[in-house]
Amino acid sequence: MTVSLLSTSESTALRGASFTYDAVGSVSEAAEAAAPEGFERVSRSQTLGRHDFAAAATDLLTWRVHERAGLRVSASEIPLVAGTVTVMRLGIGPASVSIPCRVVAVVDEARRRGFSYGTLPGHPESGEEQFVLEQRADGRIDFTITAFSRPATVLARLAGPAGRAGQRFMTQRYLDALDRL
């Protein structure tokens, strides 16, 4: 699989769409605090086996982590920037799930790189997710994913605990993906 570019019309439509939640840009606050009311918070971190921080950041910011985790990714910009829109797909053909998002923030510091995106209409969940790499003084790299979400579609609500288990499964796939690239 390769990451592809969205068409201009798809990009324009997604940029004009409203987020499906009110607390836009607050996932980084949720890293230390509770999620907004009515949302569930998830935060997972893993130390990577690789030590090539710049290359790991490139893999993250060019959607390769999402691709390697099993999603088909189309984005308005590669590498991503604040405001980039994406449609990821999970599954095959007509049975696949569409996952539209917009990048709300980019972390670009000497020893920290990453981004967060928020959900757009059509996403099965409503909320925000952040992906951050942090290089320690000894060279090791921590990869942390923090999110808050709640079901946004009838199908997601019906999935109940199985839907939450699916989210935990995908979070682990993201965490593992950087060491497989």
Which keywords apply here?
single chain; about 180 residues; alpha+beta; 8-stranded mixed sheet; 5 helices; about 30% helix; globular
Description:
The protein is 30% helix and 34% strand. The protein has five helices and eight strands. Strands 1-3-4-5-6-7-8-2 form an eight-stranded mixed β-sheet, with helices on both faces. The model has no long low-confidence stretch (mean pLDDT 94).
Roughly how many Å is the radius of gyration?
15 Å
Q: What is the residue-mean pLDDT, rounded to a whole number?
A: 94
User: What series of H and E elements makes up the topology?
Assistant: EHHEHHEEEEEEH
What is the terminal-to-terminal distance? 13 Å
- The helix content, as a percent range, equals 25-40%
Percent of residues in beta strands: 25-35%
The biggest sheet amounts to:
8 strands, mixed
- Oligomeric state, counting identical vs distinct chains: single chain
Which structural category do the helix and sheet elements fall into?
A: alpha+beta
| Number of continuous helical runs | 5
Shape category: globular
Strand order of the largest sheet: 1-3-4-5-6-7-8-2
Which regions are unreliable across 5 or more consecutive residues at pLDDT < 50? none
Strands, count: 8
Short description:
The chain has 181 residues and is α+β, with helices and mostly antiparallel strands.
Strand and helix map with partners:
Blueprint: E1 4-5, H1 8-16, H2 27-30, E2 40-47, H3 53-61, H4 64-68, E3 72-75, E4 85-90, E5 97-108, E6 112-119, E7 125-135, E8 141-151, H5 154-180
Parallel strand pairs: 1-3
Antiparallel strand pairs: 2-8, 3-4, 4-5, 5-6, 6-7, 7-8
